[in-house]
């Protein structure tokens, strides 16, 4: 008879064995476990299809056995032999490699394979890498545009790599194979079928990135965490220990970094120029949408033909007119700079030219420098993918080469198609206009009879230049958001240059001067005049919006005079329409449009537009570079993706603003107050009263409202 102890022991063993059996059965039944049957199944299939063995032409495409280096050759021979034996890791390498893309007749030339499957190959006697093999001459390449400055078009619109019309296949290979090894093996194969082979240092990606730690990397790894820690410490002191600090310089410095204080400022609202807040925020959303569409042009899609034909559709007009969103910022630049300059001069401020420029640099540079450092150091290490090196690695090298053009704010003239940050050209335009502004503003204030002639001359000069540049260079009208090289080539010669933006800037200066003259006065207009102005602006803006699609029709012939006239007048007419909206709203004639633009919800977001503009390109570029397969393009999908990028940028922007923008703005104010306090104007003295918060915020607008 069994003892109670024996029964308990047997019962315990049953309790242990039953779950174990269930777990074992569950593991064996999992998808990952069942996938191990694939090599044996493929082996049986291959023996039936290829009784004499796998064809060498197929194997040569995936195993570089003719490489230069012995190590690459040996590893490739091992890979070849194990693949013939259908060893799981070798079959996995082959399976993760791309094949002939589907949808060639729909413009899909890319098969990126399975990047994760390649990177997770186990049991192989060597490390692996994923390489993009590009084979040219599948179709006739697009003809480079007239007067293009380089032999082959590699980058467009600020340094974004062109999506070449080449048969591109991602192949999982031994990491011991260098670019030279791959050229040695694949060039004869490509030549055999009348293809050209294209490989460069951005073609391959490895699991362990070969990024050397530079001194700049070390600087970023130290300074960025220190700034975050400083803001955190200052915020804690402000919240709990501020009463231990007497009023003085140290207390002011601590408060400059306090996220609590700066966050409260971001959330404050006022009624001064509130319509500009709405225009500013909506404009940055408009620009983000246009930039996303530009990135659609350079990413693989199974129906790329649809993308190439998108810009002739009527509903693409909002994308094609994205340049007008940039014009809005230039208009706001002129309005606020002129208005507050004249206000300060009228109040008795002594104009200090060096401080005028230094003030602007301090306002703009810290957040800008953060973005440059991120692009050069941290961003390339964050993610990986088959095209990560192709996009992000390339831009990292461009930054190392041309960073100085960004720091000096000349990157819109010096190698504008090889920029560290594709959208940073606008910051240079903005800074250059700021540098030029005293030449306009001082005569505007001192010579009472000159304003109307000076402003008119500036607008006319801007229009003449905007007409002459495309006429002389034979630039086509239309948007740089285009898959056509001929439209994209005007990016460097016209789109990013300061001298082609003078017309809309002059209109903004004119509006700022009018608002200065009418400040504190009741502007009276009869209803008929208001209605006529609104109707005229609506018709004019609608025509500007729709006419651009005419120039993007395939059957539209190039007309030099018509294209130049459109380019020369379009932005100035748009600036006049926007100026009317601002003027009407500020004087009580805005109607529902004015009420919408003045919605207080826009004001906190408006204060973040500079940072949103800076960070959104990184967000969109990361999305672009992380693509691991050709997707299907649909307008609704694009809207969903754009909404996600907008949300991500808005969430990131406050963090960047609180750490890299606002503390330095506050420090600059503290230093000016400490060392230049005796030189304050009457307006500045009046703002020392905490009760006059609105005027303080208005004065802050003068140097950061023309958001980049």
TrEMBL record:
Signal peptide (from-to): 1-22
SMART domains: NRF (SM00703)
Annotated TM spans: 218-242, 315-343, 364-383, 425-446, 453-472, 502-518, 530-551, 563-584, 605-626, 646-665
Top-level taxonomic group: Eukaryota
Ranges for domain Nose resistant-to-fluoxetine protein N-terminal: 69-206
InterPro entries in UniProt: Acyl_transf_3_dom, Nose-resist-to-fluoxetine_N, O2_lipid_transport_reg
Keywords: Membrane, Signal, Transmembrane, Transmembrane helix
Annotated GO MF terms: acyltransferase activity, transferring groups other than amino-acyl groups
Protein name, entry field: Nose resistant-to-fluoxetine protein N-terminal domain-containing protein
Annotated source species: Laodelphax striatellus
């Amino acid at each position: 008879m069994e003892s109670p102890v024996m029964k308990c022991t047997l019962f315990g063993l049953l309790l242990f064995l039953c779950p174990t059996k269930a777990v074992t059965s569950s593991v064996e039944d999992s998808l990952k476990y069942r996938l191990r049957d694939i090599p044996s199944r493929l082996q049986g299939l291959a023996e039936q299809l290829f009784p004499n063995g796998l064809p060498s032409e197929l194997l040569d495409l995936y195993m570089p056995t003719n490489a230069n280096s012995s190590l690459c050759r040996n590893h490739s021979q091992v890979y070849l032999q194990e693949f013939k034996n259908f060893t799981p890791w070798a079959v996995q390498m082959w399976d993760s490699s791309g094949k002939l893309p589907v949808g060639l007749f729909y413009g899909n030339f890319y098969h990126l394979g399975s990047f994760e499957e390649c990177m997770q190959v186990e049991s192989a006697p060597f490390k692996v890498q994923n390489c993009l093999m590009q084979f040219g001459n599948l179709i006739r390449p697009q003809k480079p545009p007239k007067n293009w400055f380089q032999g082959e078009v590699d980058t467009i619109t600020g340094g974004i790599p062109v999506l070449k019309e080449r048969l591109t296949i991602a192949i999982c290979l031994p990491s011991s194979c260098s670019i030279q090894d791959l050229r040695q093996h694949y060039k004869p194969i490509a030549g055999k079928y009348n293809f050209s082979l294209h490989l460069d240092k951005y073609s391959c990606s490895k699991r362990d990135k070969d990024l050397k730690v530079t001194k700049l990397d070390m600087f970023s790894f130290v300074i960025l965490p220190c700034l975050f820690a400083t803001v955190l410490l200052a915020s804690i002191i402000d919240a709990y220990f501020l009463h231990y600090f007497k009023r003085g310089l140290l207390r002011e410095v601590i408060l400059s970094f306090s996220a609590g204080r700066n966050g409260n400022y971001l959330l404050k609202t006022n009624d001064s120029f509130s319509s500009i807040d709405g225009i500013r925020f909506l404009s940055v959303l408009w620009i983000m949408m246009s930039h996303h569409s530009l990135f659609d042009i350079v990413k693989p899609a199974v129906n790329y033909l649809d993308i190439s034909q998108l810009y002739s559709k009527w509903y693409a007009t909002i994308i094609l007119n994205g340049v007008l969103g940039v014009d809005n910022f230039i208009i706001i630049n002129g309005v606020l700079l002129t208005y507050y300059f004249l206000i300060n001069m009228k109040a008795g401020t002594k104009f200090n030219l060096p401080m005028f420029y230094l003030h602007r640099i301090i306002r703009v540079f810290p957040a800008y420098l953060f973005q440059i450092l991120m692009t050069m150091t941290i961003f390339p290490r964050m993610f990986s993918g088959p095209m990560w090196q192709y996009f992000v690695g390339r831009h990292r090298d461009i930054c190392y080469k041309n960073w100085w053009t960004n720091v000096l704010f000349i990157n819109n003239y010096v190698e504008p198609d090889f920029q560290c940050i594709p959208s940073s050209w606008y910051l240079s335009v903005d800074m250059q206009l700021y540098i030029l502004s005293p030449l306009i503003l001082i005569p505007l204030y001192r010579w009472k009879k000159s304003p109307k002639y000076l402003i008119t001359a500036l607008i006319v000069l801007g229009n003449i230049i905007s007409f002459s540049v495309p006429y002389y260079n034979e630039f086509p009208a239309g948007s740089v958001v285009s898959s056509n090289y001929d439209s994209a080539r005007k990016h460097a010669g016209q789109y990013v240059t300061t001298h082609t933006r003078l017309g809309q800037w002059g209109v903004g200066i004119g509006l700022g001067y009018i608002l200065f003259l009418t400040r504190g006065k009741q502007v009276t207009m009869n209803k008929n005049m208001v209605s006529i102005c609104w109707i005229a602006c609506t018709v004019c803006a609608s025509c500007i919006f729709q006419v651009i699609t005419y120039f993007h029709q395939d059957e539209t012939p190039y007309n030099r005079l018509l294209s130049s006239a459109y380019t020369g007048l379009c932005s100035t007419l748009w600036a006049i329409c926007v100026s009317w909206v601002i003027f009407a709203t500020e004087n009580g004639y805005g109607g529902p449009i004015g009420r919408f633009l003045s919605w207080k919800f826009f004001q906190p977001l408006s204060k973040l537009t500079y940072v949103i503009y800076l960070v959104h390109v990184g967000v969109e570029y990361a999305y672009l570079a992380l693509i691991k397969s050709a997707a299907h393009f649909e307008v609704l999908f694009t809207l969903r993706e754009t909404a996600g990028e907008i949300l991500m940028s808005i969430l990131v922007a406050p963090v960047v603003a609180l750490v890299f923008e606002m503390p330095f703005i506050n420090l600059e104010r503290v230093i000016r107050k400490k060392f230049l306090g005796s030189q304050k104007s009457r307006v500045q003295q009046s703002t020392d009263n905490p009760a006059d918060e609105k005027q303080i915020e208005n004065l802050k607008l003068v140097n950061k409202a023309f958001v980049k």
